[in-house]
Amino acid sequence: MNAPERLRPAFIATGSGAAPATKGLFIDGAVCQAVSGKTFDSTSPSTGELLARVAQAGKEDVDVAVAAARRAFEGEWSRFKPFDRQQVMLRLAELVEKHYDEIALLDTLDMGGPISRTTLGRRRAVALLRYYAGLATSTRGDTVPNSAAGDVFAYTLKEPVGVVGAINPWNGPSGLTIWKLCPVLASGCTLVLKPAEQAPLSPLFIAELAMQAGLPPGVFNVITGFGDAGAALAEHHGVDKIAFTGSTEVGQKIVRAAAGNMKRMSMELGGKSPDIVFADADLEAAVPGAAMAVFQNSGQICSAGTRLFVQRPIYEAFVQRVAAFAKTLKVGNPLDPATQLGPVVSAEQLDRVTGYLALGKEQGARAVAGGGRLTEGDLARGYYVEPTVFADVRDDMRIAREEIFGPVISALPFETLDEVVARANDSSYGLGSGVWSRNVNTVHKVARGLRTGTVWANCYQVMDPAIPFGGYKMSGFGRESGVEHLQEYLQTKAVIMKLD
After folding, report:
1. CATH fold of 8-269+479-492, please?
2. 26 and 221 Cβ atoms separated by less than 8 Å
3. Which stretches of 343-480 are DSSP H helices?
């Protein structure tokens, strides 16, 4: 199945010898090339095909983008009333819904997500924009009863933080772009977004849609490039807040870089999430639920339930059922609607994942499904990994402690509730977790005991714009979604007036 011909000239170098498109930066409401004139290649992880040449931003481009965002924040955008911002967001929601097939296709081409999965993001993308559009008109301060000396009237104002720098990973290009953009628009901030170099195409397209929706120039800017551009954005003194999603290691670097002007920060970082299955669970739901808690998006989800704890009486049978389920999954061309797992995003990521597969075997884990790279036929051109289930895993193995970011489950047996909660918490991460049991007391006790930002009970990876998401410990701080998310983009100002 090929991409529609109307998109091929813009994003794919065809076999006829046509030159690939060059995609510029999006700054101050217009497409422009990098100051240096440099570009880099965006290629398909499923075929290695060249999709486009993309402008490579450097420090000078970051300066230009931040200056544009500052002008917009202090200029025309500051005069937009909450109602006006809401209307822009609602128009953008309509445009995203109208063009979502193109957005989904770009994500599939650029990072390898199966089209059967990327198209499912339509509801969430539109829901996010409409939910935050509602928050745009409901933000308010408070009057504050106080005991200050004399007759004093006090109240608070909620004001936008200012210029936001956002840095995104490659595992959900369009969804993460919209997730970062929504609180910016609802609060009245402005944004400079640096998407991952592995998947820059849909963020650039969404920026163009945002201008069509009526955003003033400079409110939403997209700079494409590598880590040096992200570092320049993180340390820039013209940026008031950094919102980052990505690895814990890079997050730590950003925290240090942002200290120069004491930026506000929110960090959604790595994970090694426990998914706990008790013997009394509904196994018909738990088997596919536990499997797809990892295999969805080829394991490239920070909250994937990669540490699968299974109660001892059902351990062997359950692991075998998960392995059997894994073997039914169709891995292949992500443009094929029947495909359930696509490639990992890059050769670098392929090497990382297959390195962990080898390491798991060396340390004594037993692969009951998968365990290697797929190289049959056309798959040899891409970065495909078998959905893998390891049994006989110990807590001290690296595959059980380190984030792999691939389709790899480490299955560990446990005996009691208290034991498994303690073992689940014995991690530097604390992003997501799951519990499967028919006993409501068990569910509540486990949920209360786990040190994670989200606990899914008898489900996994369920998300909603109204439900906050974020991590404990080395999985970051701050929350995305819900009213808590908007507060990350607002300052609280106290006004105190002495009355006669």
Report:
1. Aldehyde Dehydrogenase; Chain A, domain 1 (3.40.605)
2. yes
3. 347-362, 398-401, 417-425, 440-449
Structure token digits, residue 204: 């650039």
pLDDT in tens, 124-161: 999 999 999 999 999 999 999 999 988 999 999 999 99
Contact 341, 369 (CB under 8 A): no
Three-state DSSP class for 241? strand
274-464 CATH: 3.40.309.10
Considering only CA atoms, which of 273, 269, 227, 271 is closest in space to residue 248?
269
Distance set, CA 485 to CA 140, 141, 168, 265 (Å):
15, 16, 16, 12
CA distance between the termini of the chain: 77
Q: Which of 235, 268, 403, 480 is catalytic?
A: 268
Residue 268 annotated as catalytic: yes
CA dist., res. 219 & res. 76, Å (int): 9
| Ranges in the chain annotated CATH 3.40.605.10 | 8-269+479-492
- Give me the sheet containing 307-311, strands edge to edge: 366-369, 388-391, 408-414, 307-311, 274-277, 434-436, 456-457
- Per-residue pLDDT of 84-139, as tens digits, reads 999 999 999 999 999 999 999 999 999 999 999 999 999 999 999 999 999 999 99
Which residues, 6 or more positions from 211, have their beta carbon under 8 angstroms from its beta carbon? Answer: 29, 217, 220
Say how many C-beta atoms besides its own lie within 10 A of residue 110's C-beta.
27
Q: What are the residue ranges of CATH 3.40.309.10 in the chain?
A: 274-464
What torsion, rounded to 10 degrees, do the Cα atoms 26, 29, 32, 35 define? Answer: -80
**Which of 189, 302, 403, 480 is labelled catalytic?**
302
Report the relative pairing of strands 490-498 and 152-160 from DSSP bridges. Answer: antiparallel
Residues in the chain: 500
Instruction: Give the pLDDT confidence of 435-492 residue by residue, as tens digits.
Output: 999 999 999 999 999 999 999 999 999 999 999 999 999 999 999 999 999 999 999 9
Percentage of residues in the chain with pLDDT exceeding 90?
Answer: 94
Instruction: State both tokens at 492.
Output: 């609280």
Mean pLDDT of the chain: 95
Q: Is 302 a catalytic site residue? A: yes
| Helix (H) or strand (E) run with residue 100 in it | helix 100-111
Q: DSSP assignment, residue 377? A: G
